[in-house]
Amino acid sequence: MKYIIAVIQPDRLDAVLDLLEDKEIHLVTVSPVMGRGRQKGIAAVYRSHKEAGSLLKKIKLEIAVNEAFVQSTVDAITQGARTGNIGDGKIFVLDLNECIRIRTGEIGGVAIG
């Protein structure tokens, strides 16, 4: 089991979700977040005064998958989120030691779905 965390541009969310759905990956948690990467935020001019915006709006996806779905999940996120510009985002793939479905008490891969 793996836990996949992706941070992407907000305007790419629909494309990523559509591609995940096409690959039969339905269980996704989506959160609005703020952060910055190498671009270190953006600069804006306000009343002829340059102000640096230190944090940018992003979307965080959290997805728990069984081993068989790891590569297709990463591929869907990469394909849907990539624009080729700085700030497209990151994908983190972590080991998931345990998953428990609260309603039924199922444990492990069957609890993921």
Q: Would you give an account of this structure?
A:
The protein is α+β, with helices and mostly antiparallel strands and 113 residues long. The chain has a single domain, classed as Alpha-Beta Plaits, CATH 3.30.70.120. It has 3 helices and 6 strands; from the N terminus they run E-H-E-E-E-E-H-E-H. The strands form 2 sheets. A 4-stranded antiparallel beta sheet has the order 2-5-1-6, with helices on one face. Helix 1 packs antiparallel against helix 2. The longest helix is centred in the last third of the chain and has 12 residues, at 70-81. The chain is elongated, with a radius of gyration of 17 Å. The model has no long low-confidence stretch (mean pLDDT 90).
Mean pLDDT, to the nearest integer, reads: 90
- Going across the major beta sheet, what is the strand order? 2-5-1-6
> What would CATH call the architecture?
2-Layer Sandwich
* CATH class descriptor name: Alpha Beta
| CATH fold call | Alpha-Beta Plaits
What is the overall number of helices? 3
Largest sheet: 4 strands, antiparallel
DSSP strand content:
35-45%
Report, as a whole number of angstroms, the end-to-end distance.
11 Å
User: In percent, how helical is the residue content?
Assistant: 10-25%
Radius of gyration: 17 Å
* Number of discrete domains: 1
Q: By helix and strand content, what is the structural category?
A: alpha+beta
Overall shape: it is: elongated
Q: Could you state the order of secondary-structure elements as H and E?
A: EHEEEEHEH
Question: What is the number of strand segments?
Answer: 6
Low-confidence stretches: none
